[in-house]
Amino acid sequence: MERAGYSRKQLKESAATFVDALFGPAIPVSR
Fold first, then answer.
1. Superkingdom, according to UniProt (predicted)?
2. For residues 15 and 9, what is the distance between their CA atoms, to the nearest angstrom?
């Protein structure tokens, strides 16, 4: 359970960083 939750959180953060790196300069991301 805890591992799954951690994985989901880590995946979400990784996705946010990935999108930020690609579309950050072009699209303003509000967090």
1. Bacteria
2. 10
How far, in Å, CA of 31 to CA of 26, rounded?
16
At residue 8, what is the residue type?
R
Residue 11 CA to residue 13 CA, distance in Å, equals 5
Backbone phi, psi, residue 21, to 5°? -70, -35
pTM above 0.90, yes or no: no
Give the model confidence (pLDDT) of 10-27 as tens digits.
Answer: 888 888 888 888 776 666
| Angle, CA of 30, 14 and 21, to the nearest 5° | 60
